[in-house]
Amino acid sequence: MNVYLHKVRVFFVAALVFSSVAMCSPTEDIWISGKPKVITTISPLTSITENIGGNRIVLLGIVPEGVNSHNYHPVPSVIKHVESADLIILNGLFLEDPVMRIIETTSNENRKMLSLGDRAVSKEDWIFDSSFPKTKGVPNPHLWPDPLMALKYADLIRNELVELDPSGAAYYNENFVKLSGRIEDLDRRIVDAVESVPQENRRLFTYHDSWPYFARRYGLDILGAIQPSDLTEPSAREIVELIELIKQEEVPAVFGSKIFPSPVIEQIAKESGATFVDGLSDDDLPGIPGDDEHSYLGLMVNNLTIMVDALGGDSSFLELVDVSSVFAGNSKAEYLQ
Ligand SMILES: [Zn+2]
Predict the structure, then answer these.
(1) What is the pLDDT of residue 154?
(2) CA 178 to centroid of ligand 1, rounded, Å
(3) C-alpha of residue 282 to centroid of ligand 1, in Å
(4) CA distance linking residue 194 with residue 305, whole number of Å
(5) CA atoms lying within 13 Å on the CB side of residue 119
(6) For residues 261 and 113, what is the distance between their CA atoms, to the nearest angstrom?
(7) pLDDT tens for residues 192-203?
(8) What single string gives the DSSP state of each residue in 40-84?
(9) Domains along the sequence of the chain with CATH
(10) Which of 95, 167, 232, 337 could make a disulfide contact with 91, Cβ separation 3.0–4.6 Å?
(11) How far is CA 125 from CA 67, 131, 237, 256, 271, in A?
(12) Within 10 Å of residue 200's Cβ, how many Cβ atoms?
C-alpha cells in the first residue's frame, strides 16, 4: 500500500477509536457524589435499576445502546468506575462474558455482584434452541422480554439495594411496588394483545433469537431465528433452507432486529413471501435518555406494538401502559450511547 494512504488510514482509524472512547466517557462529578455507586450492563437492566434506585443512587449502564451486547468489550474509560462501584448488576447466563473478564481484572473487596438471570431461574428453566444449543451448555440469556422475569429482576435489585443502603429501604420498597404494578399491568395487556392475534399467526420468526422466554409466557411458537449461533450471517445453503422453512410453515412475518441490521433478511422475506418487519429490540431502548419511553416498559410496548400489528392483532391494548419513571425528580443514571 502507498505509504501516504496507509498513514491517512491509520489516522482515521485512530480518530474513530478516540472519538468513540470520548463519546462513551461517563460523567465524573456524578460518580463522586457519595451515593451508592451502581454499575449495570444492558439498558433494560439499567432502566429497572434506575426505577428502583431513583435519585438515591448513582448509576452507570456500561453497555452502550445500539451495540451487540453478546460480545461487547467495555471501553477503557469505564474500568475505573467498574473498579470503584459498590454493586455491579449483570444479566448473567453468559450474556456479558467479555464484561465479566474485565470485572475480574479489577479488584475491590467490598464490591458486590448481582447476576440476575442466574438468580431468577434455575437450570431446569433454561431454554436451549438453535441459537443457543444445548451442546454448548450456554442457555438463551434473554429472560427480560418476559415481564414476569423482569419482575423477578426488579425484586432482586430491590433486595440488593436495601442491603447496600438500609436507610433507603422505604424508598426502594415504594418504588418497587409502583414498578411491579406497572409491569403486572404490562403483562395483562400483552395477554390481551396476543389473544387478539389470530391463533394461526401466533408464531415468531426473528433475526436475533431474543424471544423464547417471552413466547413461553404468552403461548407463541418460535419457528426459528435467522442469525446463526456464532452471531455471523447465515451461509448460502442456510439461506435456502430458511426460505424453504418459511414457505412451508407459511410464516406470517419475519422480524428484523435493531442491533443486527442484516442484508440477507429482506432477501429471505422477499423470496419466501413473508412480510419483513423491522425494529424489534432486545436491549436498545426507544427514544433517548430522559424520554419517558426510554425505559424497559417503553421497550416492551414498542416491541409488542410492532409484533402484534404485523401478526394481525390489535396493539391498542398496549397504548395505555405508563412507561414513564415511577419516582419523582431526576435520577443520577447514565446510559452510555
Ligand atoms: Zn441479544
Answers:
(1) 98
(2) 27
(3) 6
(4) 10
(5) 17
(6) 33
(7) 999 999 999 999
(8) ESSHHHHHHHHHHHGGGSEEEE-S-TTS-TTS----GGGHHHHHH
(9) 27-186+327-335 (3.40.50.1980), 194-318 (3.40.50.1980)
(10) 95
(11) 27, 17, 33, 27, 36
(12) 10
How do beta strands 275-280 and 221-225 pair?
unpaired
pTM for the model: 0.91
Provide the pLDDT for residue 26.
Answer: 61
Q: What angle do CA 113, 114, 119 make, to 5 degrees?
A: 140
C-alpha of residue 212 to centroid of ligand 1, in Å: 11
The DSSP letter of residue 27 is P
Q: State the distance from the centre of ligand 1 to the C-alpha of 99, rounded, in angstroms.
A: 15
293 CA → ligand 1 middle, Å: 20
**CB 323, CB 302: distance < 8 Å:** no
- Rounded Cα distance between 241 and 235, Å, is 10
Distance 299 CA to ligand 1 centre (A): 14
| The amino acid at 28 | E
Distance 6 CA to ligand 1 centre (A): 36
Q: Ligand 1 centroid to 9 CA: how many Å?
A: 32
Location of C-alpha cell 428484523: 256
φ/ψ region of 203 (left if φ > 0, alpha if ψ in -120 to 50, else beta) reads beta
The phi and psi torsions of 222 (rounded to 5 degrees) equal: -95, 115
pLDDT digits (tens, 9 = 90+) for 260-297: 888 888 889 889 999 999 999 999 999 999 999 999 99
Task: Match 447465515 to its residue by C-alpha cell.
Answer: 234
The pLDDT value recorded for residue 16 is 40
